[in-house]
What does this fold into?
Amino acid sequence: MSDDEGRAKRRSRRITWAVRIGAVLLRLLAKTWRFREIDGEYMRGMGRRGEPYIAVLWHGELLPLIWWHRNRGIALLVSEHGDGEIIARVARSIGYEMVRGSSSRGADRALLELIRVVSSGRAIGISPDGPRGPEHTFAAGALLVSHRSRAPIILVRASASRAWRLRSWDRFLIPKPFARVTVAYAEPQTVVADSARDAAAQAPRFKEALLSLGSSIGA
It folds into this structure.
């Protein structure tokens, strides 16, 4: 066995163990959280009617949001980087499909796959500041998918009454045991534009709307 093969196997084992431990810890912790929704009917109504949508959320609020929206048939855009592999496997274990790619790796392929998934009638979730930030940067991917597919964007935010914040670029949110988690939704909006460039130019407006939604719940 070569050194490269040995390193690859060790890395694979580390990821496997991280996924197993992470999935167990998430289930144990999340089952203690108490959730409340604000305007949740926007997303639930579209889900019941089988209508596709694009859920847009900050990367730092991913943990409580993927738990709350588990088993709804949502496909997540997850980075192909190492950390993304762990997130992808944990998310898959609680009912998500995966689209792999990011703004820095596999971007064009991921965008085409997201458009295909939404156009087939399914929902997707995108973090516009993932996978490496800076925090609250609003990349245009979700806007381009909405422009091409005509599927609406639903902005989603989460806050917790008690939480840990990791010292990571996104200040990753981990609600503490028995925390009250508030999840807020904005009214669905379809990106209407004459071109992809015009669609991407709407990023500042959507960023401000996502920040404002968070302010309304103390996020």
Observations:
- Helices lie at 3-30, 41-48, 62-68, 82-93, 107-119, 141-149, 196-200, 203-215.
- Residues 124 and 147 are 14 Å apart (CA to CA).
- The longest strand covers residues 153-160.
- The longest helix spans residues 3-30.
